[in-house]
């Protein structure tokens, strides 16, 4: 029952967000129907575009899961961007320094990225557990620290011959892109990260709903004192919760910098970090919900350009629509109430 | 030392928007509503003032700046209603609603700027001028630190902080505001409309964050470009660091301002040149974390902050 | 006789429940009128309607004979109605004065003017024997004092009708005596009082009439003087209730818990427990009596591992557990009914079935190799809810938050007993419960003892300690001040020992 | 002539922006303005797209969007497009590409300019040189500074050329301008306005009189600082970049703190390529360099802040650059950073 409710809420939010977007389009003198048809065609029109949509979604699934997982354990992490950077940096460093067979290489890189993200996130976890430092503030600080760590370490150790501002290109054997997948989707940027994202979604769903670890983490999130009373190690769990969340974001970094992208640039805080909050939110913090909402964002991200190219709708409208959807998702209580009202009415009449 | 004197006024200039935004956050959280949307509200303020000032500057001259500040406050307050409706009436998760505010503000303002002016960047020709305060700036040490090269807006923001201290601790409004943030059921039972107080507080925070965005524009940036580069989040950190107290945020924002300025200018100071760049850039964030470690144990957070008010809850 | 307040045919429903069903109640001027009913009977709801917090679905309220519409607490205040809520409505970091003037602040221009208010509060405090310091901060004063602040709040607003919702549930015996005195003072000043309480003794002691509610309906209004507590209890519960705990004599067995020279610090870094030594044996209920705040909390937390012991030792089942982990103690056979059920006892956002495995989720059959077994958990919960008569709307899937305090408490008691512990540390196990539930929980504690297990009962209710315990230990200022057998002592003596005045020998 | 006009209107010219916005007052805007000029003067249809990120995949996606929407003449500014154009020029063989500030390559920096692609470079070092020389002549003695955004090739070349220009003036025109290593900095972003102001302020306080800013928004902060100093009657100059920034430095009616600007004709380049395409002369496969020789770089001709004498001397040196008598290095060598 709860699940139908969340689904209804998310759909209503998306719908109202789209309506609001349509109003904006109409205000700028564009035809919303045309706009949306190009938007969705841009994201889904052919295999290549579907592949690109999924490629965009891949990173968002992982950052969305990262935020959602922390959320479910009572923590609000804004740190996905920084953890992505660290994960990406570790993956890039390994990819550029080691020479291994592709499967082993990828395994090592992903493991390193997950560990890097986890370690980076466990610092705010530790500060929260031991010193009660608010994770919102500490993760913001950690983001900027990661930004500067990458900013200085890429040029110092991994830069190419000519450019100070980006790493060398990731060699083929260290890239998550594989030919069969790219060919399957007609040359799209889709990469093995997608499979990783699907796996991660399943695993996180499993952890949250079916394992004692999930039970513990949620208990700590809901009520620290009761968890302590029950003999659960609260500090360890907070660090663990942020650690897992960080590992997910670290993996997001690996898929982004060694899959979607072909090298690592400095001076950019990846947008997928903050977008993860929106994705998690629209997915009602449930793992498969996150997956679905990431795909939706993927469509928006990749269809936006086609819509802009085909119509006179300015590029900024895409962002406005996404933002509006989030706002409506935040105010979803309204829809839940409406939904309950409908249910009651329906029941009475039945 | 000379360098410290010379950059101090810039640290203060950098501090003021942070301070104004943190003060806005203070009203909001003291009433029990968390406002992650400060960043977005600052963008709205920056946008509004840029539009107003660039439109009026030719005809009005310098007084257009003040009109711009006022407009930023009004529009900031109006925009914050989005957050108020979501988090007060609809009992939405406040953090999420604030995040949505940030996204909407960033996208919508650039969109509007492009549609209205044809460009997503709006420039004003002239901001406020730094001035030395006569007499006071001649005082040794203090003069060059605090009374040299000051912006008019600095005194405005400082005055607002002082007024806020009085309002929050010495007036019935302040008493009620704090009650709503600590224990809204108590305020409710005392006949205070928690909804109304929270609306007022959210709007004040919108106005102050709007002002903060405008202050950035009229002091050091003079250009709207759809971003305030994370200052809103930093203001939030300063609010927590300052323990939700006016004097506290005055201290914490100055701390940030000085740390960030030192990090910025250290590049041009030969004495610092042997220190790795990473350490210099990381400095403000590391000291913030360190300071939080020291101050977080005894958190004075308003107890009800972040919780939607539920009359029936006991 | 003049009725100052009349509530006529009031009904109020919440989703899924009719909390007040056509209730009528009349309050005379200058009377103390008790309102009695099981947990969840609808008492608080009714009073919240009178105070303007809830709106009745139907019914009429008359004040001084005139029909009124009480939309919000302001209207109630204006009509001279004041209320002390079950959970205090005080701002913890405000002073007494600030709390009292909140909403009707005296001003000097735009500024607060607290000096006059302070003076007036002082006067009121003296006049009614309340002894409150207007400048103290709420978080620094005792719960009893906080309650007096609530009373002052009403008096400051010139309330004529005072509603007390379970005022004594949180008080120490001495504070209860003081409160009774205060109520009599109020009555002497012609105030009218509605008193909600589960304690029949208190009703007997102070009320003139008593209205009994069961499942949202009025069962009847009786004159207290002419009605026995037994009759009132039966009216409320709908069956016979026994107050006396059936308990056969039993020889205590070997020592299960051996506390030696234990010292524990409070959160404020003061010495809360000082050189405390005590033994609890198999087959006995050891009652620990004491005034609230005399180190019981810290002692229990040290025993259960929630707080560090500074020095001394805790031997449990012959093993040194002084520094053992919380889980180690639970696994070792220690169970704990916590003082604050909402803070420690339950994860309010978890369902009942999830709450029932709070300490044992890691054990088979509830989980295997880290994976949860829903089926086993559900069966376990269903069994316990049935065995301990835990009632909740959606059965094992009810969210704990939505359940009444009484049912929450029964669930915790059930859970802890289900662990079949060697030692059950029961802190305030019946706080806020109706007599039916109390009877039930008491029976379970005795069963535990009869089964050869040890029970350490920590309670502020002297009655409870006297009735249940095989031995009574008294704690005062963190020190053991005496040990008595219930048969060889009385409330008076224990009370003196609790106050640290007399020290008793060892039983 | 009229029959030739028909295909003209059919050309659809698209642009994908680099990091930063279309209003960056720098190469995005410069490129776009060139395209817009082609729109009004040559009647082509125009469109720009803003990618969601700055990776190769993001760029190719937008190029694909333009292509699918019929925009088969695509202009991309910035070296970050190098690998994307490398792929696009084969993938979209019937489209034309103009890559500004970069060479298509597969990731190994070996330039492969397709037959349907033109690579355009600017001699930023020459622009920096001329601006540095002009500024030194005008100021004669004192200290200069340089603020860069990030260490990307274009910015580095501006910097190195600027240093050489100043040195050239010191050696050949008797000026005494000092450029201390500590006053040559890369702030680390193109957006931190506050940092720009603070760094400029501390440079000015230490005696620097003119700062060359190639730093986007960071430069905006520096310009603001110079303006408020000028209003207070102090000497503070900024040397602008990319376009003639004179208007942005105006503080008092017509006075501006922009001493001069190191310009590169991005807009002209974009416009020229579109025009060449319409004329059927698209120089596909070529790498074009816009430099002093072809007047692709320079400083503004009209500028009240430079005396007529200085202007004349700059003209002379510019001629030397054109003739190759003076050569400016585009690598760091022994220069600062
Ligand atoms: N806000 C609410 N929402 C839903 N149901 C409620 C609410 N308040 C009370 N109820 C329901 O109304 C019934 C009466 O509750 P009430 O608090 O009046 O009982 P009570 O007699 O005061 O009990 P207790 O002795 O435990 O204090 C309960 O069954 C409860 O479930
Ligand atoms: N959010 C809610 N949804 C449904 N019912 C609620 C909710 N909150 C409270 N209630 C109901 O309100 C009633 C009273 O709650 P309360 O916590 O006062 O219980 P209580 O038995 O009076 O506990 P206490 O021992 O704290 O006095 C409960 O019966 C509970 O069912
Ligand atoms: Mg009640
Ligand atoms: Mg109760």
How would you describe this protein?
Chain A is an all-alpha fold and 350 residues long. Chain A has helices spanning 2-27, 32-44, 47-72, 80-97, 102-131, 135-158, 179-184, 193-210, 212-222, 224-229, 234-260, 271-282, 287-310, 316-330, 333-349. Chain A folds into 2 domains: 1-30 and 312-350, no CATH class; 49-308, ABC transporter involved in vitamin B12 uptake, BtuC (Orthogonal Bundle). In chain A, 78% of the residues lie in helices and 0% in strands. The relative contact order of chain A is 0.22. By secondary structure, chain B is mostly helical. Chain B has one domain: ABC transporter involved in vitamin B12 uptake, BtuC, CATH 1.10.3470. In chain B, helix 10 (231-241) crosses helix 11 (246-265). The mean pLDDT of chain B is 90. Chain C has 507 residues and is α/β, with parallel strands linked by helices. Helices cover 33% and strands 27% of the residues of chain C. In chain C, helix 14 packs parallel to helix 15 (435-450). The radius of gyration of chain D is 20 Å and the shape is globular. In chain D, helix 5 packs antiparallel against helix 10 (308-323) and helix 7 crosses helix 8. In chain D, strands 2-1-3-4-5-13 form a 6-stranded parallel beta sheet, sandwiched between helices. In chain D, strands 7-6-8-9-12-14 form a 6-stranded mixed beta sheet, sandwiched between helices. Chain D contains 10 helices and 14 strands. The chains are: A mainly alpha (350), B mainly alpha (314), C alpha/beta (507), D alpha/beta (337). The structure holds adenosine-5'-triphosphate (ATP) (2 copies) and magnesium ion (2 copies). The site of one adenosine-5'-triphosphate has 14 residues of chain C, from strand 2, helix 1 and helix 14. Residues 39-40, 86, 401-406, 432 of chain C line the site of one adenosine-5'-triphosphate.
Strands of chain A, count:
0
Estimate the mean pLDDT confidence of chain A: 90
Taken from the alpha-carbon principal axes, the silhouette of chain B is: globular
Number of discrete helical segments of chain A:
15
Fraction of residues in H or I helices of chain B: over 70%
Q: Give the strand content of chain A.
A: under 5%
**Uncertain stretches of 5 or more adjacent residues of chain A:** none
In the predicted model, the low-confidence regions of chain B spanning at least 5 consecutive residues are none
Strand order of the largest sheet of chain B: 1-2
Helix content of chain A: over 70%
Total of domains of chain B: 1
- How many individual helices of chain B? 12
Major sheet details of chain B: 2 strands, antiparallel
Shape by Cα distribution of chain A: globular
Do you know the CATH topology of the largest domain in chain A?
A: ABC transporter involved in vitamin B12 uptake, BtuC
Ligands, deduplicated: adenosine-5'-triphosphate, magnesium ion
- The rounded distance between the terminal residues' Cα atoms of chain A is 18 Å
């Amino acid at each position: 029952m709860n699940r139908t409710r969340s689904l209804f809420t998310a759909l209503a939010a998306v719908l109202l967000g789209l309506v609001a977007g349509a109003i904006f389009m109409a205000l700028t003198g564009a035809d919303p129907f045309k706009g949306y048809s190009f938007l969705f065609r841009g994201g889904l029109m052919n295999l290549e575009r579907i592949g690109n949509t999924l490629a965009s979604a891949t990173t968002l699934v992982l950052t969305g899961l990262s935020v959602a997982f922390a959320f479910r354990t009572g923590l609000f992490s804004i740190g996905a961007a920084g953890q992505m950077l660290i994960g990406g940096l570790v993956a890039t460093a390994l990819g550029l320094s080691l020479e291994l067979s592709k499967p082993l290489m990828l395994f090592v890189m992903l493991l390193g990225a997950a560990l890097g993200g986890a370690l980076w996130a466990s610092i705010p976890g530790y500060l929260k557990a031991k010193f009660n430092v608010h994770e919102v503030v500490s993760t913001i600080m950690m983001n900027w620290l990661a930004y500067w760590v990458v900013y200085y370490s890429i040029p110092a150790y991994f830069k190419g011959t000519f450019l100070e501002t980006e790493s060398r290109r990731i060699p083929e054997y260290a890239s998550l892109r594989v030919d069969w997948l790219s060919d399957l989707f007609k040359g799209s940027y889709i990469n093995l990260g997608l499979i990783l994202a699907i796996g991660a979604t399943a695993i996180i769903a499993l952890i949250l709903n079916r394992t004692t670890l999930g039970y513990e983490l949620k208990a700590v999130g809901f009520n620290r004192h009761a968890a302590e009373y029950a003999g659960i190690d609260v500090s360890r769990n907070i660090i663990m919760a942020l650690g897992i969340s960080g590992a997910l974001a670290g993996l997001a970094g690996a898929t982004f910098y060694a899959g979607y992208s072909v090298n690592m640039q400095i001076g950019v805080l990846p947008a997928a970090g903050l977008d993860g909050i929106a994705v998690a939110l629209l997915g009602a913090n449930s793992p498969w919900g996150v997956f679905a909402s990431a795909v939706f964002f993927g469509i928006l991200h990749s269809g936006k350009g086609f819509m802009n190219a085909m119509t006179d709708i300015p590029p900024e409208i895409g962002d406005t629509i996404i933002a509006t959807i989030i706002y409506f998702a935040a105010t979803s209580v309204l829809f839940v109430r409406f939904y309950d009202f409908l249910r009651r009415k329906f029941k009475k009449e039945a | 030392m000379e360098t410290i004197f010379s950059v101090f006024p810039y640290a203060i200039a950098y501090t003021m928007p942070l301070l104004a935004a943190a003060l806005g956050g203070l009203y909001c959280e003291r009433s029990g509503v968390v406002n992650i949307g400060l960043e977005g509200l600052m963008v709205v303020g920056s946008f509004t003032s840029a539009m107003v000032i660039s439109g009026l500057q030719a005809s009005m001259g310098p007084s257009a700046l003040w009109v711009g500040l006022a407009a930023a406050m009004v529009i900031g307050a109006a925009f914050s209603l989005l957050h108020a409706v979501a988090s007060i009436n609809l009992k939405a998760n406040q953090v999420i609603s604030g995040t949505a505010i940030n996204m909407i503000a960033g996208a919508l303002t650039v969109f509007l700027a492009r549609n209205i002016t044809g460009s997503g960047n709006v420039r004003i020709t002239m901001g406020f001028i730094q001035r030395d305060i006569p007499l006071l700036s001649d005082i040794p040490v203090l003069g060059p630190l605090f009374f040299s090269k000051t912006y008019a807006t600095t005194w405005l923001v400082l005055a607002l902080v002082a007024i806020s201290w009085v309002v929050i601790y010495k007036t019935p409004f302040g008493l009620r505001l704090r009650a709503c943030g600590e224990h809204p059921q108590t305020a409710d039972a005392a006949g205070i409309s928690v909804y109304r107080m929270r609306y007022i507080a959210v709007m004040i925070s919108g106005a102050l964050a709007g002002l903060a965005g405008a202050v950035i524009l009229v002091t050091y940036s003079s250009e709207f470009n759809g971003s305030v580069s994370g200052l809103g989040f930093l203001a939030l950190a300063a609010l927590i660091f300052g323990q939700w107290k006016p004097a506290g945020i005055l201290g914490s924002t100055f701390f940030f301002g000085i740390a960030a300025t030192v990090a910025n200018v250290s590049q041009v100071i030969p004495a610092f040149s042997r220190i790795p760049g990473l350490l210099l850039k990381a400095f403000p964030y590391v000291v913030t974390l360190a300071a939080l470690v020291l101050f977080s144990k005894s958190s004075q957070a308003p107890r009800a902050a972040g919780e939607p008010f539920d009359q029936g809850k006991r | 006789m003049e009725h100052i307040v009349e509530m006529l045919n009031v009904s109020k429903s919440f989703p899924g429940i009719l909390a007040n069903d056509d209730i009528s109640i009349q309050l005379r001027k200058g009377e103390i009128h008790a309102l009695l009913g099981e947990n969840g009977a609808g008492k608080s709801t009714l009073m919240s309607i009178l105070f303007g917090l809830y709106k009745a679905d139907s019914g009429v309220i008359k004040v001084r004979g005139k029909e009124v519409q009480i939309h919000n607490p302001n209207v109630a205040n204006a009509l001279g109605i004041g209320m002390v809520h079950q959970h205090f409505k005080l701002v913890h970091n405000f002073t007494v004065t600030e709390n009292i003037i909140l909403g009707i602040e005296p001003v000097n221009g735009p500024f607060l003017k607290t000096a006059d208010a302070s003076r007036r509060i002082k006067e009121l405090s003296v006049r009614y024997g309340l002894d409150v310091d207007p400048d103290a901060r709420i978080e620094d004063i005792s719960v009893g004092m906080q309650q007096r602040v609530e009373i002052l709040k009403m008096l400051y607003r010139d309330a004529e009708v005072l509603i007390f919702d379970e005022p004594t549930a949180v008080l120490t015996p001495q504070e209860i005596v003081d409160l009774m005195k205060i109520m009599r003072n109020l009555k002497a000043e012609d105030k009218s009082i509605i008193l909600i309480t589960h304690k029949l003794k208190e009703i007997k002691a102070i009320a003139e009439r008593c209205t009994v509610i069961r499942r949202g309906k009025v069962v009847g209004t009786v004159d207290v003087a002419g009605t026995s507590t037994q009759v009132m209890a039966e009216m409320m519960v709908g069956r016979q209730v026994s107050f006396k705990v059936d308990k056969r004599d039993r020889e205590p067995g070997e020592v299960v818990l051996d506390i030696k020279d234990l010292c524990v610090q409070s959160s404020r870094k003061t010495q809360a427990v000082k050189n405390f030594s005590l033994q609890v044996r198999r087959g006995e209920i050891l009652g620990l009596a004491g005034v609230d705040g005399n180190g019981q909390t810290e002692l229990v937390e040290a025993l259960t591992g929630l707080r560090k012991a500074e020095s001394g030792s805790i031997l449990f089942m012959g093993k040194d557990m002084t520094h053992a982990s919380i889980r180690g103690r639970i696994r070792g056979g220690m169970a704990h009914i916590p003082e604050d059920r909402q803070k420690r006892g339950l994860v309010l956002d978890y369902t009942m079935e999830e709450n029932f495995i709070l300490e044992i989720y890691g054990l088979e059959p509830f989980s295997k190799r880290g994976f949860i077994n829903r089926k086993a958990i559900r069966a376990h919960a269903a069994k316990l809810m049935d065995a301990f008569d835990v009632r909740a709307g959606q059965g094992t899937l009810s969210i704990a938050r939505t359940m009444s305090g009484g049912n929450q408490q029964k669930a915790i008691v059930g859970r802890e007993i289900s662990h079949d512990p060697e030692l059950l540390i029961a802190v305030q196990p019946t706080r806020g419960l109706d007599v039916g539930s109390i009877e039930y929980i008491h029976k379970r504690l005795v069963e535990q003892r009869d089964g050869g297990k040890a029970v350490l009962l920590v309670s502020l209710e002297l009655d409870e300690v006297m009735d249940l315990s095989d031995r009574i230990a008294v704690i005062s200022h963190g020190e053991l001040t005496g040990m008595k057998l219930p048969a060889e002592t009385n409330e008076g003596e224990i009370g003196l020992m609790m106050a640290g005045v007399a020290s008793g020998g060892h039983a | 002539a009229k029959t030739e006009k028909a295909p003209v209107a059919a050309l659809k010219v698209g642009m994908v922006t680099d990091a930063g916005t279309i209003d960056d007052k720098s190469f995005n805007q410069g490129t776009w303005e060139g395209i817009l000029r082609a729109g009004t003067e040559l009647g082509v249809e125009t469109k720009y797209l803003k990618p969601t990120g700055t990776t190769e995949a993001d760029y190719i996606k937008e190029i694909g969007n333009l292509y699918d929407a019929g925009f088969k003449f695509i202009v991309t500014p910035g070296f970050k497009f190098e690998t994307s154009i490398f792929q696009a020029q084969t993938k979209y063989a019937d489209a034309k590409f103009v890559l500004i500030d970069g060479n298509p390559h597969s990731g190994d920096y070996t330039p492969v300019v397709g037959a349907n692609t033109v690579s355009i470079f600017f001699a930023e070092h020459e622009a920096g040189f001329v601006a540095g020389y002009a500024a030194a002549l005008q100021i004669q003695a004192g200290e200069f500074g340089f603020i860069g955004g990030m260490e990307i090739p274009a910015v580095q070349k501006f910097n190195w050329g600027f240093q050489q220009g100043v040195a050239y003036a010191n050696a050949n025109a008797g000026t005494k301008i000092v450029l201390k290593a500590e006053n040559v900095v890369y702030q680390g972003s193109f957006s931190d306005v506050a940092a720009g102001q603070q760094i400029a302020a501390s440079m000015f306080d230490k005696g620097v009189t003119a700062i060359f800013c190639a730093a986007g928004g960071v430069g905006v902060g520096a310009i603001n600082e110079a303006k408020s100093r000028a209003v207070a009657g102090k000497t503070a100059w900024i040397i602008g970049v990319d376009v003639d920034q004179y208007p942005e430095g105006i503080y008092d009616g017509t006075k501006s703190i922009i001493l001069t600007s190191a310009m590169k004709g991005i807009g002209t380049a974009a416009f020229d390529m579109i025009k060449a395409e319409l004329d059927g002369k698209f120089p596909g496969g070529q790498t074009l360099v816009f430099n002093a020789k072809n007047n692709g770089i320079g400083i503004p001709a009209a500028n009240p802040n430079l005396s007529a004498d200085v202007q004349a001397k700059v003209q002379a040196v510019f001629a030397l650059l054109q003739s190759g008598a003076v050569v400016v290095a585009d690598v760091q060598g022994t220069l600062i950073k």
